[in-house]
Amino acid sequence: MSAHRIPLAGVLGAPIAHSRSPRLFAHWLSEMGIEGHYAPLHVEPDDFGHVVRTLPRMGFRGANVTLPHKLAALQIADHVSDRAKRIGAANTLTFREDGIHADNTDGHGFIANLRHSAPDWTASAGPAVVLGAGGAARAVLDALIEAGTPEIRLANRTRARAEALAEAFGPKIRVVDWAEAAPALEGAATLVNTTSLGMAGADPFDLDLSALPASALATDIVYTPLDTPMLIAARARGCRTVDGLGMLLHQAVPGFERWFGATPNVTEALRAKVLA
Ligand code: ATR
């Protein structure tokens, strides 16, 4: 990797055509006048290792990694951040002299989005209710615990998946039955939907939010549509809501900083550009 080369980065996935990351990085590069490129790279699982080892020799400083490579990205790395180890997946690879560094910035993106959009929100204000136990839930749980959430009530349709996460993430997590998710909202300070419920084309979100205090903050990982049924229902209760697009934008910031050497801003103009 020689210093005079134009810095390159990209996102690896299959499929990759619908990724919003190239638009996001292109906006930042142009806004900040940085000479660099960020490419969508369609990579099949069988080719992943070969491609990742070749990218640094082509001038790539790093790459984002999306489905189905988030586990392979962890396994191929020479150095893995503690949070990526805890989450069990990586979404950000950085190529350095001493090898491939893997990190997971989803949890950072989640918390940064809340802090940016609702500056007076604090994790320590009270219990959180988290719906879902997939990959996104792992990053959210890790970030909520690190931010000081006193108790997390975790509800998932398949209870065994929630129990596995409680075992992995420790005693702050209390598993509640999916059927008990509605009463578990009582006294909650934060509600997070990490399920696909309410996403365009997925099953409807039909959880009864009548026990959610008006003082709570509600946020959804889903951002298609931007204003999800869960956020609309929470607002009807008087709650503050934060949509999920910001998490996508904020999770990209650490990679941009590492590869292009500048800190980008998450702005309304960026949101509009990424949604266009
Ligand atoms: P991701 O990695 O994006 O979190 P995932 O692993 O497919 O995706 O997880 C999707 C989440 O949505 C899971 O918690 C899933 O519940 P199960 O573990 O029971 O599958 C949840 N989910 C999807 N459809 C659902 C439905 N109709 N009702 C309740 N939960 C649902």
UniProtKB/TrEMBL annotation:
<feature type="binding site">
    <location>
        <position position="221"/>
    </location>
    <ligand>
        <name>NADP(+)</name>
    </ligand>
</feature>
<dbReference type="GO" id="GO:0004764">
    <property type="term" value="F:shikimate 3-dehydrogenase (NADP+) activity"/>
</dbReference>
<dbReference type="InterPro" id="IPR011342">
    <property type="entry name" value="Shikimate_DH"/>
</dbReference>
<comment type="function">
    <text>Involved in the biosynthesis of the chorismate, which leads to the biosynthesis of aromatic amino acids. Catalyzes the reversible NADPH linked reduction of 3-dehydroshikimate (DHSA) to yield shikimate (SA).</text>
</comment>
<dbReference type="GO" id="GO:0005829">
    <property type="term" value="C:cytosol"/>
</dbReference>
<dbReference type="GO" id="GO:0008652">
    <property type="term" value="P:amino acid biosynthetic process"/>
</dbReference>
<dbReference type="InterPro" id="IPR041121">
    <property type="entry name" value="SDH_C"/>
</dbReference>
<dbReference type="Pfam" id="PF08501">
    <property type="entry name" value="Shikimate_dh_N"/>
</dbReference>
<feature type="binding site">
    <location>
        <position position="223"/>
    </location>
    <ligand>
        <name>shikimate</name>
    </ligand>
</feature>
<feature type="binding site">
    <location>
        <position position="244"/>
    </location>
    <ligand>
        <name>NADP(+)</name>
    </ligand>
</feature>
<feature type="binding site">
    <location>
        <position position="251"/>
    </location>
    <ligand>
        <name>shikimate</name>
    </ligand>
</feature>
<feature type="binding site">
    <location>
        <begin position="19"/>
        <end position="21"/>
    </location>
    <ligand>
        <name>shikimate</name>
    </ligand>
</feature>
<feature type="binding site">
    <location>
        <position position="66"/>
    </location>
    <ligand>
        <name>shikimate</name>
    </ligand>
</feature>
<dbReference type="InterPro" id="IPR013708">
    <property type="entry name" value="Shikimate_DH-bd_N"/>
</dbReference>
<protein>
    <recommendedName>
        <fullName>Shikimate dehydrogenase (NADP(+))</fullName>
        <ecNumber>1.1.1.25</ecNumber>
    </recommendedName>
</protein>
<dbReference type="InterPro" id="IPR036291">
    <property type="entry name" value="NAD(P)-bd_dom_sf"/>
</dbReference>
<comment type="pathway">
    <text>Metabolic intermediate biosynthesis; chorismate biosynthesis; chorismate from D-erythrose 4-phosphate and phosphoenolpyruvate: step 4/7.</text>
</comment>
<keyword id="KW-0028">Amino-acid biosynthesis</keyword>
<dbReference type="InterPro" id="IPR046346">
    <property type="entry name" value="Aminoacid_DH-like_N_sf"/>
</dbReference>
<feature type="binding site">
    <location>
        <position position="91"/>
    </location>
    <ligand>
        <name>shikimate</name>
    </ligand>
</feature>
<dbReference type="InterPro" id="IPR022893">
    <property type="entry name" value="Shikimate_DH_fam"/>
</dbReference>
<keyword id="KW-0560">Oxidoreductase</keyword>
<comment type="subunit">
    <text>Homodimer.</text>
</comment>
<dbReference type="GO" id="GO:0009073">
    <property type="term" value="P:aromatic amino acid family biosynthetic process"/>
</dbReference>
<dbReference type="Pfam" id="PF18317">
    <property type="entry name" value="SDH_C"/>
</dbReference>
<feature type="binding site">
    <location>
        <begin position="156"/>
        <end position="161"/>
    </location>
    <ligand>
        <name>NADP(+)</name>
    </ligand>
</feature>
<feature type="domain" description="SDH C-terminal">
    <location>
        <begin position="244"/>
        <end position="268"/>
    </location>
</feature>
<feature type="binding site">
    <location>
        <position position="82"/>
    </location>
    <ligand>
        <name>NADP(+)</name>
    </ligand>
</feature>
<feature type="binding site">
    <location>
        <begin position="132"/>
        <end position="136"/>
    </location>
    <ligand>
        <name>NADP(+)</name>
    </ligand>
</feature>
<feature type="binding site">
    <location>
        <position position="106"/>
    </location>
    <ligand>
        <name>shikimate</name>
    </ligand>
</feature>
<comment type="similarity">
    <text>Belongs to the shikimate dehydrogenase family.</text>
</comment>
<feature type="domain" description="Shikimate dehydrogenase substrate binding N-terminal">
    <location>
        <begin position="11"/>
        <end position="93"/>
    </location>
</feature>
<keyword id="KW-0521">NADP</keyword>
<feature type="active site" description="Proton acceptor">
    <location>
        <position position="70"/>
    </location>
</feature>
<dbReference type="Pfam" id="PF01488">
    <property type="entry name" value="Shikimate_DH"/>
</dbReference>
<dbReference type="GO" id="GO:0050661">
    <property type="term" value="F:NADP binding"/>
</dbReference>
<feature type="domain" description="Quinate/shikimate 5-dehydrogenase/glutamyl-tRNA reductase">
    <location>
        <begin position="128"/>
        <end position="195"/>
    </location>
</feature>
<dbReference type="GO" id="GO:0009423">
    <property type="term" value="P:chorismate biosynthetic process"/>
</dbReference>
<dbReference type="GO" id="GO:0019632">
    <property type="term" value="P:shikimate metabolic process"/>
</dbReference>
<dbReference type="InterPro" id="IPR006151">
    <property type="entry name" value="Shikm_DH/Glu-tRNA_Rdtase"/>
</dbReference>
<keyword id="KW-0057">Aromatic amino acid biosynthesis</keyword>
